[in-house]
Amino acid sequence: MSVYDFKAKTIDGQEISLDKYAGKVLLIVNTASKCGFTPQYEGLEALYKKYKDQGLEILGFPSNQFAGQEPGDNGEVKNFCQINYGVSFQLFEKTDVRDENAHPLFNYLTEKAPFQGFNMNHPVGKPLLEALENNFPQFLEGNSVKWNFTKFLVDKEGNVVSRFEPTSEPVEMAEAIEKLL
After folding, report:
1. Matching InterPro entries, A to Z (predicted)?
2. Does the predicted TM-score (pTM) go above 0.70?
3. Strands in the chain per DSSP E
4. For residue 55, what are the contacts with CB-CB under 8 A and spacing of at least 6?
5. How far apart are CA 175 and CA 127, in angstroms?
6. CATH of span 3-180
7. Tell me, what DSSP letter sits at residue 127?
8. Where are the domains of the chain?
9. Would you state the torsion angle of the CA atoms of residues 43, 148, 16, 44, taken in this order, to the nearest 10 degrees?
10. Who's near 181: CB < 8 A, 6+ residues apart?
11. What is the pLDDT of residues 33-91, one digit of tens each?
């Protein structure tokens, strides 16, 4: 099994098979428009522009599961991303990425790349962990997605290679992406 065995609907409502991306390096990210990590869209777009011609695809999956930080409909999300961050990589429809209604892709990703903890050297590492412990302790259980902007790196064969938590900035993934390209 690989990520190519899954289907998802684009933000415009078209269902596609992820095998469309066979032979590409993928960065799969759950996103939100009203999160402290939302400025990572800028870094993700920079990575996409730098590496897309070498075979990188970024797949963004907006989710409203984390403190309601993605309240808009799919059209609002798409407009927000394009107007504020010039996002040109593929966005998908709003998706559950954890719990019983999670998209099967995210169940697969979190099974293949378990949670290893937040980067406590990131300025928001400790506050994020404390906020989750105090407000959403259930989010810390198991290997599920813990918060917006969790990123999964997938090789050209569709294998999950690594997981980067929200406390990893997109630029920090450049070296890992280059090795796979």
Report:
1. Glutathione_peroxidase, GPX_AS, GPX_CS, Thioredoxin-like_sf, Thioredoxin_domain
2. yes
3. 7-9, 15-17, 25-31, 56-62, 90-91, 151-154, 160-164
4. 23, 24, 25, 156, 181
5. 27
6. 3.40.30.10
7. H
8. 3-180
9. 0
10. 25, 51, 54, 55, 56
11. 999 899 999 999 999 999 999 999 999 999 999 999 999 999 999 999 999 999 999 99
Catalytic residue numbers read 35
Helix, strand, coil fractions of the chain, as percent rounded to 5: 40, 20, 45
pLDDT tens-place string over residues 103-142: 999 999 999 999 999 999 989 999 999 999 999 999 999 9
C-beta of residue 113 within 8 angstroms of C-beta of residue 152 = yes
| Residue 137 exposed, middle or buried by CB count within 10 Å (0-12, 13-18, 19+) | exposed
Question: What tokens were used for 16?
Answer: 């596609």
